Amino acid sequence: MGRILIVDDMPVSIKVLGEFLSQEYEVAVATSGRQALESADRNPPDLVLMDVVMPEMDGFEVCRRLRQNPKLVGVPVIFLTALADSDDVVRGFEAGGQDYILKPYKKGEVLLRVKTHMELKLAKEKLDQYAQELERKNKELQQAMEEIRTLRGILPICSYCKKIRNDEGYWDQVESYVTKHTHAEFTHSICPDCLQRYYPAEWASIQQRKGSG
């Protein structure tokens, strides 16, 4: 059940609206602009039915202040007023209102407008939830991709033959793997330790030449 805040300085108007709206919605009332702002901030409604001509603060100003509250930015405001001039209608929309109903109004019209804006608000909230969920999943996907890139940077290498396991599960020589996955090319040589281990005669000859030089 949605919650409607009725804002009107006339008790009779509040009574009439409250009687038929309370059959389908939870109804809260405020008899002044200041009271409306306090009530809405304390317990945000799903929709506001706003009279325009009120003492101290008119409905347009109340609506503008509602729009300044982050908690109430998305709450639809429907103006209920006898001000039929087109300039007043424009002022209502410029203040942040979503709809404008002229007095005297018909019960069926009010119910239909209220239902429509309630459904629009619910649809927007669902879209916002979907968008937030999509953003969350996109962030999770990006994080997973980063983890995959990190894992791909760790190469399984045999402790004995020093071959590297490729993406297909086969084992390649280091030279072959690097050539396939990078633009690097090899020039063949031998380090001093391997030269001494595998070619001791050549190693000794080189050392002898160094010593004689």
Automatic annotation (TrEMBL):
GO molecular function, a single term: transcription cis-regulatory region binding
PROSITE patterns in UniProt: RESPONSE_REGULATORY
Domain Response regulatory: 3-118
Keywords (A to Z) from UniProt: Coiled coil, DNA-binding, Phosphoprotein, Transcription, Transcription regulation, Two-component regulatory system
Superkingdom, natural source: Bacteria
GO BP annotation list: regulation of DNA-templated transcription
Pfam families, per the entry: Response_reg
In-chain residues carrying the UniProt-annotated modification 4-aspartylphosphate: D51
Annotated GO CC locations: cytosol; protein-DNA complex
InterPro entries listed in its UniProt record: CheY-like_superfamily, Sig_transdc_resp-reg_receiver, WalR-like
Coiled-coil ranges from the UniProt annotation: 117-154
Protein name (Swiss-Prot/TrEMBL): Response regulator receiver domain-containing protein
